[in-house]
Amino acid sequence: MNTAKNIRFIFCAIALTASLLAGAQRMDKLIARDMKLAVKQYKLLAAKTPADSMPRHYDPRKLEWVNSDTKWWCSGFFPGSLWLIYEYTKDEAIRKEAEQRLAILEKEKHYTGNHDLGFMMYCSFGNAYRITGNPLYKPTIDTSAMSLATRYRPAIQSIQSWDSNDKLKCPVIIDNMMNLELLYWVAQHGGDNKLKEIALTHANSTLARHFRPDGSSYHVLDYDPATSQLIRKLTWQGTADESAWSRGQSWGLYGFTMMYRFTKDVRYLEQAKKIAGFIFNHPNMPADLVPYWDFNAPGIPNAYRDASSAAINASALLELAQYVGKEESNYYLKTAEKIIRSLSSKTYLAKSGANGGYLLMHNVGNLPFHSEIDTTLTYADYYFLEALIRYQQWILDKKFPYNS
């Protein structure tokens, strides 16, 4: 009897191993297919984008490419995506395009007009330095971090996101968590230690003030610069002040996972897990794990989806899975894989030559301000590509780079 049980156990183990290997091989092929498409699409997108500009989005209704100057907050995502594509494919034409786009972006290392230097300069020059090791890129990254630090406001223990306007006095948004990577990385690689302290203080103030008990976050906290008092908590891109704007939740998930990588502060890990719990246990999360643009959006299930939020989630979960126990890790990995498969389906992934050269369809930029609705977004593509690279390197090739 025991022999029979042992035999069954062995066969079950073999079957499970075979199943896992088959799944890995399927993901390997899916990633290869997506990256092959990315090469074609981004060569098309590059050809449609003037040499002194960056792509912003493609309007399929007007068949129009919309571009931006290099000061736009998303200007680093196109060159960043090119570097990610090059990292996987080693396509020299893609690398050349990436280098040309860096050349026009480099001057923004001195920009202090908003908090997005991390998006602009670390996603671009940071990836270039990581992939090539070219020391010429590092001074640009270092200078960018110092420029970002000028927006730190000690009285509120936070980096001011946008300049004051007629509606906001001193806004701090959840997105800002993403830009702390630039500060902390530079501090760890020969930069001023004050950059690390700013990143830590901002993360701690965000942890203390930005979140609701259920793990969801507000989008914007507005302060009075004269008194340093918190005036109100509101949204700029969600459906309502007390709603959960989907991409905001994704920024928080990614940001606190990344801060745990740097610090090993368990508070950040627990917050990332709590945010993940909110996102993936929410009753309004669709079965394909591509969120509605706001978890409380009116009109669900007919509300717009935001593939950019899903892409950020997938990339974040692949890192979060490295820091938790086996059971939680498996859950996060399976969830990330399901998101990647959804985004790789014909529902969200463009056909070759379509979608203006972008990869992902069905993203929402800022619906309340009627901007970039159900269209392409550069950061959607960037985090989708990052998720593909992370899955290939960390899960299939088992080369997770942040082991302590």
From TrEMBL:
Active site (catalytic residues): D116, D175
Pfam families cross-referenced by the UniProt entry: Glyco_hydro_88
Leader sequence residues: 1-24
SUPFAM superfamilies: Six-hairpin glycosidases (SSF48208)
Residues where substrate binds: D116, D175, T235, R247, W251
GO molecular function: chondroitin hydrolase activity
Keyword tags: Hydrolase, Signal
InterPro entries, per database record: 6-hairpin_glycosidase_sf, 6hp_glycosidase-like_sf, Glyco_hydro_88, UG_Glycosaminoglycan_Hydrolase
Swiss-Prot/TrEMBL GO biological process terms: polysaccharide catabolic process
Family: Belongs to the glycosyl hydrolase 88 family.
PANTHER family assigned: HYDROLASE, PUTATIVE (AFU_ORTHOLOGUE AFUA_7G05090)-RELATED
Name of the protein in question: Glycoside hydrolase family 88 protein
